[in-house]
Write a structure and sequence with these properties.
alpha+beta, Beta-Lactamase, Arc Repressor Mutant, subunit A, five-stranded antiparallel beta sheet, two-stranded parallel ribbon, 7 strands, globular
Length: 221
């Protein structure tokens, strides 16, 4: 539930503190009821959309989570929490080595596709940045070090080349041709050429269908 706080203070530091402890917006006294209702409508709508997106991600079986700049996990799929448990990580308490490693990595402003191997854990894990949420939280994929990479799974199961598998992986993660091209250090035209080869191999005609095939493979893998 989004929290909108009321304040009689105009100092920026006070407002920032309110936002830092969980507020999504604020109103200054005296309250205008029309303005309050408008803010409530907007933030409740955004909260419903976010919840819907999170539920959709939960159902895909993907190892995804979001974290703030301090390395605190804000949300994760059930599969991600299960993988954290294998490494004996409690990612939400902010006191573990994992949180420190994550915050230091995020402080370096990693780009989409950048990865980090997590060292000295009881179970081998690594991270890959997928994107950034509108609220500033980072969307990150948790990778099981005892399993093949996602691209390797796609290559093995769908008879793709290594580059085709990499392109398909990022398309399945919602990237545009241009974004996938930047991540893979190739031109958007080259990404499109790879997709032209991928579609007939998968028996599909568009990106959405190809992404669906890839997600089924990754979920089962």
């Amino acid at each position: 539930i989004p929290v909108i706080f009321m304040t009689g203070l105009s100092d920026t530091d006070d407002i920032v503190r309110g936002l830092e402890v969980g507020g999504v917006d604020y109103l200054v006294k005296p309250i205008n009821p029309t303005e309050l209702l408008a803010l409530m409508k907007v933030h409740l709508s955004n909260a419903r959309l976010t919840k819907s997106a999170q539920s959709a991600l939960d159902s895909t079986g993907q190892h995804l989570f979001t974290a703030d700049e301090k390395g605190i996990v804000r949300w994760a799929t059930p599969q991600t929490y299960a993988l954290f448990a294998k490494a004996n990580i409690s990612p939400t308490d902010g006191s573990e080595a994992f949180t420190k490693m994550l915050s230091q990595w995020l402080a370096g402003s990693p780009q989409d596709g950048d990865s980090l191997n997590l060292e000295a854990l009881e179970y081998p894990l690594s991270l890959k940045r997928v994107g950034k949420h509108s609220n500033g939280d980072q969307l990150i994929k948790l990778i099981d070090g005892n399993k093949p990479t996602e691209a390797a799974l796609l290559k093995a199961n769908l008879d793709l080349t290594e580059r085709e598998a990499e392109v398909l992986f990022w398309i399945a993660n919602g990237k545009t041709n241009r974004e996938a091209a930047e991540i893979l250090s190739m031109s958007p035209r080259t990404v499109n050429k790879h997709l032209e080869m991928i579609f007939p191999k998968l028996g599909v005609e568009n990106r959405t269908a190809a992404a669906g095939v890839a997600l089924r493979v990754l979920t089962q893998g």
